[in-house]
Amino acid sequence: MHCISIFNLKTVMYKIVSLLILSTIALSCKSAKISKTITKTVSSNFYDNQFTGIMIIDPETADTVYQYQAEKYFIPASNTKIATLFSALTLLKDSVPAFYYQKKADTLVIQGIGNPTFLHPYFKDSTALRWAKNYKHVKIIESSFADDKFGPGWAWEDYDTYYSPERTAFPMYGNVASISNSSQLEVSPKYFKDSVFQKTKKISRAYNTNIFYYDTTKTRAVEIPIVFDSLTSQNLWKHILPGKISFSKSRFTEEPNIAYSIPSDSLYKRMMYESDNFLAEQMLIMASSNITDTLNTALVRNYMLDNYLTDLKQKPRWVDGSGLSRYNLFSPLSFVQILSKLYATIPRERLLNFFPVGGGSGTLKSWYGGNPEPYIYAKSGTVGNNYCLSGFLLTKSGKILIFSFMNNHYKTPTAENKTRMQQIFEYVRDTY
């Protein structure tokens, strides 16, 4: 019986090894077929006058399914938010840090920590306001905020556009004025009700003043960035809590506590689904509080590159959290490496939930539909003449692949690039 058991075991092991070998050969053949087909596609005349890079890997086998100029640098646009997501998941807790605080008898002392959800039009977090209502006096310490209100390389003419709010240490209302005109003119925050005028020019706000312009013949809701200096902050706080608020440049007398607000995952998902630049920037500000007393996004980016992303084959030029800046430079390989780190540490269901779904949600709602099952979970990045997409691809064989597909400096319509990308994704889905 003993000899028979050993014999049977050897037979089983032989079959397992044989199956593994056959499986490896099959995957190798599939990769070769995919490589030949995609290379033929990107060698067409369409790609002659643009820069394109592609990286696709199988994270289970660590095999490269396809690569094309994957180690070259590209302008990533909002694909940068993948690095921001990785940083937030690494440095922040399960709940969003709302503010620093100390309690002193009838006085609450608070200081901003970069939390973007406070009175935000979507999140409507009122943690700081609820706390403040319970005290006779509220002293707000002006934070040591080292960043400029706009990131390096941001387009100056976007100052009045919804996607370019200013960065601040203690945001309020998403740092935007929300204006609509369904039955009557509605303005939030109400403090700016008398600062909204009939729109006669293209701009939506005076250049460096909180004078807003809205077309009252329309009903469409708009969001216009606020000029958020210290005086604006004081006026907004005093408007919602008259007689209670004072401001100070002094420091806490002892180590402050941190109050928390909403679950962090809801913030991450919103940032990724809507490609929200403001949320992305503020997430890095909050993350910086874990490594320094001064809120500084450059410090947190360098900290991540020096400690958690040291193995990236091409060190990125990473200058902001949102990807608004054309100074950012990442390679497709770098994004695949960052996504691989996320895939290795975050449960699959939770991880995919952060990413827009092809044909289903967020910025991918109109593209990469699965018909019927979704197969693309990814972050897009779009800035004039550049379009990138990085994330996860589910094959019909049940595999999950990690990819980054980056296109720069084209003059053809972005939709044409997306159409060709979709054809490649569908081929990989059906073949691998």
TrEMBL record:
GO biological process, one term: proteolysis
SUPFAM superfamilies registered for this protein in UniProt: beta-lactamase/transpeptidase-like
Taxonomic superkingdom: Bacteria
E.C. designation(s): 3.4.16.4, 3.4.21.-
EC supergroup of this enzyme: hydrolase
Single GO MF descriptor: serine-type D-Ala-D-Ala carboxypeptidase activity
Keyword tags: Carboxypeptidase, Hydrolase, Protease
Keyword Repeat (UniProt): no
Pfam families assigned to the protein according to its UniProt record, in alphabetical order: Peptidase_S13
InterPro entries cross-referenced by the UniProt entry: Beta-lactam/transpept-like (IPR012338), Peptidase_S13 (IPR000667)
Record-stated family: Belongs to the peptidase S13 family.
Protein's recorded name: D-alanyl-D-alanine carboxypeptidase/D-alanyl-D-alanine-endopeptidase (Penicillin-binding protein 4)
Source organism of the structure: Formosa algae
